[in-house]
Amino acid sequence: MTADVSGGVGADVSGGVGAGRAAVRRPAGPDEPDAAWATVCFSPPALARDDGTRPARSASAVWRTAAARGPVLVRLYGSFPTAAHGRYGPPPPCRHAPGRLPCDVHLWADADRSRRSGPGLVDCADVLVSPAPLPLPAARGRVRELLARHPGCLAAVSSSGTGCVVGVRTGAGGPWYGRLACDGAWGRAAPRVAASVVHAWTVAGRPPDALRSLAAAGPPVRAYGRYA
């Protein structure tokens, strides 16, 4: 990930990381939901020892910094198969012992579509994603706009070319911006995977500018249904 030196939004706004942990309106559609829960596991379990959840999509990846690399599993949950405007809480945390990096649960929202799922959902999301591919300057502007308009989110991501433009709220000095090389094997889910990993990485206390790339460790797996 290389630093974007084209400027920031301004002063840091103290965001509610995890503000979306309360029950929220269910997103529309199980295939490409407008908003849903996500879990990030830096100690991916073997399939036989999975945690019993049934995400809408799972993506295995390898994160890389200049000096290290490691596996990560992102589970992007779909909506409950219940009546429209039902409510649901976050999925259960991973059941394994803590690893080198802690697992993460957060609420993500598609900033381009999530208004359809109910008012205010985008305002309580921990992560905002703009998945429509944009030229690099437009993607940078979109990320700045999202962080400026939604102070409750920690990270915002916009798709651009073979990577994603990332904006992350930092403790001081305003948001940080950069570009993360992200494998296109995940298709439209690529910016969601990138956003979730960046969120988990940041809340674990790691500097976002240390991340250089995310590479697919396997194709995305779909398994629709409720989680346990």
CA radius of gyration: 16 Å
Largest sheet descriptor: 9 strands, mixed, barrel
The whole-number mean of residue pLDDT values reads 74
Helical content (DSSP H or I, runs of 4+): 10-25%
Give the number of helices.
2
- Low-pLDDT parts are 1-30, 47-51, 80-85, 222-228
Beta percentage is 25-35%
Distance between the termini: 36 Å
Strand tally is 13
| Shape annotation | globular
Q: Main sheet: which strands, in order across?
A: 3-5-4-12-11-10-9-8-7
Structural class: alpha+beta
Q: What string, H for helix and E for strand, traces the elements in order?
A: EEEEEEEEHEEEHEE
Provide structural commentary.
There is one protein chain. It contains 2 helices and 13 strands, in the order ββββββββαβββαββ. The model is unreliable at 1-30, 47-51, 80-85 and 222-228 (pLDDT under 50). It is of the alpha+beta class. A 9-stranded mixed β-barrel has the order 3-5-4-12-11-10-9-8-7.
Question: What characteristics describe this protein?
Answer:
228 residues, alpha+beta, two-stranded antiparallel sheet, 29% strand, globular, disordered C terminus
